Amino acid sequence: MASAEYVSLSRTGDKMPLVGFGCWKISPEDAENTIYDAIKTGYRLIDGAADYGNEVEVGRGINKAIKDGLVKREELFVVTKLWNTYHNKANVRPSFDRQLQDLGLEYIDLYLIHFPVPLKNVEKSAAYPPGWYAPNGATAIEFERSPMHECWRELEKIAESGLAKNIGISNFNVQLILDLLTYANIKPAVLQIELHPYLQQTRLVEWVQSQGINITAYSSFGPASFIQLTEDGKSAQPLLEHEVIKSIAKKHGKTAGQVLLRWSLDRNVAVIPKSMHVERMQSNRDITSWSLDSEDHKQIKTIDRGLRFNNMDSYGFNLPLFA
């Protein structure tokens, strides 16, 4: 059974592709050509962030594709994210302006708050992107008193200006979303979260969608992106090699990666896989013309372990963000 290829976002009605291309862990040296190839392959949503350290090169890939006539700007849906060190109301707009300039674009389709973590500001002249630690040899993360309601209001101003067509959030839990909804003039259009069969978060997904907020899943392949980052990433059985996933893939004549991505689409959740290889880019996109059946979903449900890989505690930050 074929599925929709887009979801309509609240407030604007803009159509967000359900299958996008993620820019995390693409080196600046590879980013321009990789993004160009992704657009050439058919991807229309490009998901980036200041923290990825490759926005200049991602922008070059986007603009090259536009210049070469592969796509028109209005056919693309470009996503980027506000980093933690720029939550103060005085720093949100300057950070956004820097990102817009780095990307070489006139507007962004969706601007997200990357984490609900107000870190102490780091001047761009000192380090950009600054990461989690201040560039002064700090061994612990440092916070600042930058309330979320002030940060969100600055995102709303950017949305009202039209420079960001839509705004949203990433890595927020229900309590934070509930609080945000009490003061938001513009409701978040999207929540981006870690989501895969080891971390299914069914109640969170259902509740957020019931609020009219769309969901994008990152790390759809589970531990694959975290092998070099955390012990959990090293020790967990790769989802791409899990017997349940492999058996379902064989049943449908698909790859394990396609099954993992289709699992999210069947929940009306967008996905943003990344690959450096054109053949795999094509494979990852081929997930809208078929679907999993109820028995497949029943089997996948049994492998939920509540196993989160993008976990601040795993990085030694002493920040139980998802506790």
From TrEMBL:
Substrate binds at H114. SUPFAM superfamilies: NAD(P)-linked oxidoreductase. PANTHER family: ALDO/KETO REDUCTASE (PTHR11732). The keyword Oxidoreductase applies. The active site is at Y52 (proton donor). Keywords: Oxidoreductase. This is NADP-dependent oxidoreductase domain-containing protein. GO terms for molecular function: oxidoreductase activity. Belongs to the aldo/keto reductase family. The keyword Oxidoreductase applies. InterPro entries: AKR, Aldo/ket_reductase_CS, NAD(P)_OxRdtase_dom_sf, NADP_OxRdtase_dom. The record marks K81 as: Lowers pKa of active site Tyr. It comes from the Eukaryota. It comes from Phycomyces blakesleeanus (strain ATCC 8743b / DSM 1359 / FGSC 10004 / NBRC 33097 / NRRL 1555). Residues 22-304 form the NADP-dependent oxidoreductase domain.
